């Protein structure tokens, strides 16, 4: 009897304290404090990291047998299907915003630029990891070709997958990551053209960050001075919608 | 003892302010970290060994999602669980570092936690285990010294389990893996680190359960008061004992 009472009191106590924390998590000041820890993590990590410190690279025989997809597995729109049917021959990557020479690049042009291949680990915010070999053009080469303005601070990646209500996926990175040697625009995975579930025809690889930063189904790269005016203002689809960290090195 | 005349002679200063502050900060942190950690775990309740691991790979443990009584927040919200976890983790890690450094400086570790040579003898450990099994807790001034099992568990938690939580947690961060590549090698891969993080969290829960049990057995009011105010009432000797 006493044992049951104690247990009930314990469960009730646990539920109360959790409900208390839940309520705290809804308080605007507490949320601001919780959300500000991201800046501390970014500052600490950037202080401990060399600017060009590389993410671990693996041997090809260390790859995951199957590299799963996540998020959008197929944009599925009529426009995307038409591009896919033509082998993405009609697809173009636009590079614009704060650049001297706006570009419109075909897959063939991107493949003709200097390439980098890297076998890296993809870490999803959910907790799983997969290792795959990516090949593509370093983003810095594209930015050099476009003549990035000195006023540009961020690069916004606009995607072709509609996340609902006409909201296309998007992400953004700062210049530290944009000019990092492992930041590439990848057109192939494990020595084959990028599968649809992994972001065909082109996706971003920004290896020191969690998976949701690695924008798939790229359509346009926009150089901006400030993220506040872009879409929801938080620098990415999940950042706007769900409250994910913009700095996803954590 | 130099306490004032109003203090009964069997009341002694037991815990320093630094120990008490850290104890309660740590308790709150571990509570929030455990519950928000289970909320994060729910996003992918499978554990693997090695560098990689996802749905098509072999998991060594697959669990159903933890219910709302276990997680922070109660309803599934990966983003908010992560905000809680990563905010509190900073407080937890730097509080532990500060406590360790301060305990070295004020000789808390050397005086109260370090194992003495005689204590490591098997005969001594055996007697301590027997005393615990028979619930013969020390009385009088002897209650002021940690016994060998207490020392071992406090050392194990403070210097092994808690740092293990921090370092396996850091290994799950792709940014930290680039900054400190040795983290990945230390634990044999990010997914191994995630598994160890999960196991060590439950070992801490095990420590918590035994810790609470011992507090209850040793006199919960007295123990709680000593960890809040610092003042501890020496347990009276049992009948037929001199308390030494």
Secondary structure layout plus pairing:
The complex is a heterodimer of chains A (about 250) and B (about 240).
Chain A (H helix, E strand, L loop, with lengths): L1 H25 L1 H21 L29 H8 L7 E5 L5 E3 L1 H6 L3 E8 L5 E10 H8 L7 E9 L5 E7 H4 L5 E6 L2 E2 L9 E3 L12 E7 L12 H5 L9
Parallel strand pairs in A: 1-10
Antiparallel strand pairs in A: 1-2, 3-4, 4-7, 5-6, 5-10, 7-8, 7-9
Chain B lengths: L10 E3 L3 H25 L4 E2 L13 E2 L15 H28 L2 H6 L8 H12 L14 H24 L2 H6 L2 H6 L2 H29 L1 H9 L2 E3 L11
Antiparallel strand pairs in B: 1-4, 2-3
Helix pairs in contact in B: 1-2, 2-5, 5-8, 8-9
Please give the share of residues in helix of chain A.
25-40%
What is the number of beta strands of chain B?
4
| Order of helical and strand elements of chain A | HHHEEHEEHEEHEEEEH
Global shape of chain B? elongated
Domains of chain B (count)? 2
**DSSP helix count of chain B?**
9
Mean pLDDT of chain B: 92
Descriptive tags:
heterodimer; A: 250 residues; alpha+beta; 5-stranded mixed sheet; 5-stranded antiparallel sheet; B: 244 residues; mainly alpha; two-stranded antiparallel ribbon; 9 helices
Structural account:
The complex is a heterodimer of chains A (250) and B (244). Chain A is α+β, with helices and mostly antiparallel strands and 250 residues long. Helix content of chain A is 31%, strand content 24%. Chain A has seven helices and ten strands. In chain A, strands 2-1-10-5-6 form a five-stranded mixed β-sheet. The longest helix of chain A is centred in the N-terminal third of the chain and has 25 residues. Chain A starts with a helix and ends in a 9-residue tail after the last helix. Chain B is mainly alpha-helical and 244 residues long. Chain B folds into two domains: 79 residues, no CATH class; 120 residues, no CATH class. Chain B is 59% helix and 4% strand. In chain B, helix 1 packs antiparallel against helix 2, helix 5 runs antiparallel to helix 8 and helix 8 packs across helix 9. Chain B is elongated, with a radius of gyration of 21 Å. Chain B starts with 10 loop residues before the first strand and ends in an 11-residue tail after the last strand. The mean pLDDT of chain B is 92. At the A-B interface, helix 1, helix 2 and strand 4 of A face helix 1, helix 2, helix 6 and helix 8 of B.
């Amino acid at each position: 009897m006493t044992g049951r009472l104690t247990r009930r009191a314990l469960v009730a106590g646990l539920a109360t304290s959790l409900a208390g924390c839940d309520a705290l998590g809804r308080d605007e000041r507490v949320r601001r404090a919780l959300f500000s820890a991201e800046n501390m993590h970014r500052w600490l990590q950037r202080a401990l990291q060399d600017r060009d410190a590389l993410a671990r690279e693996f041997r090809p025989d260390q790859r995951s047998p199957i590299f799963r997809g996540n998020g959008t597995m197929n944009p599925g729109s009529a426009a995307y299907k038409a591009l896919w049917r033509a082998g993405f021959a009609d697809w173009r990557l636009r590079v614009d915003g704060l650049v001297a020479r706006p570009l419109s690049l075909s897959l063939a042009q991107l493949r003709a630029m200097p390439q980098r291949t890297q076998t890296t680990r993809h870490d999803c915010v959910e907790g799983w990891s997969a290792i795959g070999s990516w090949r593509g053009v370093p983003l810095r080469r594209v930015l050099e070709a476009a003549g990035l303005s000195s006023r540009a601070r961020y690069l916004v990646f606009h995607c072709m997958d509609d996340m609902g209500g006409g909201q296309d996926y998007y992400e953004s990175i700062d210049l530290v990551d944009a000019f990092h040697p492992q930041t590439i625009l990848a057109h192939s995975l494990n020595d084959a053209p990028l599968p649809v579930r992994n972001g065909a025809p082109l996706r971003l690889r920004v290896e020191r960050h969690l998976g949701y930063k690695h924008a798939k189904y790229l359509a346009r790269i926009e150089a901006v001075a400030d993220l506040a005016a872009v879409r929801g203002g938080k620098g990415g689809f999940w950042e706007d919608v769900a409250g994910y960290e913009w700095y996803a090195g954590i | 003892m130099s306490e004032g005349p109003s203090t009964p002679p069997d009341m002694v200063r037991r815990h320093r302010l630094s120990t008490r502050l850290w104890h309660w900060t740590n308790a709150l942190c571990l509570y929030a970290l455990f519950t928000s950690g289970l909320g994060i775990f729910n996003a992918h309740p499978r554990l693997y060994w090695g560098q990689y691991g996802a749905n098509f790979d072999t998991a060594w443990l697959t669990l159903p999602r933890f219910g709302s009584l276990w997680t922070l927040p109660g309803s599934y919200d990966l983003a908010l669980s992560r905000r809680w976890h990563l905010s509190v983790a900073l407080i937890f890690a730097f509080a532990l570092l500060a406590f360790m450094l301060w305990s070295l400086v004020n000789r808390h570790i050397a005086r109260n936690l370090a194992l003495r040579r005689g204590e490591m003898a098997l005969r001594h450990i055996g007697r301590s285990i027997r005393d615990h099994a028979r619930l013969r807790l020390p009385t009088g001034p002897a209650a002021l010294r940690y016994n060998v099992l207490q020392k071992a568990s406090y050392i194990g938690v403070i210097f092994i389990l808690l740092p293990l939580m921090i370092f396996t947690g850091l290994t799950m961060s792709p940014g930290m893996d680039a900054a400190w590549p040795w983290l990945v090698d230390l634990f044999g891969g990010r997914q191994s680190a995630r598994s160890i993080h999960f196991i060590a969290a439950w070992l801490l829960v095990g420590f918590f359960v035994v810790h609470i049990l011992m507090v209850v057995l040793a006199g919960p009011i007295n123990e709680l008061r000593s960890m809040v105010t610092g003042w501890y009432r020496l347990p009276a000797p049992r009948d037929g004992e001199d308390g030494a």
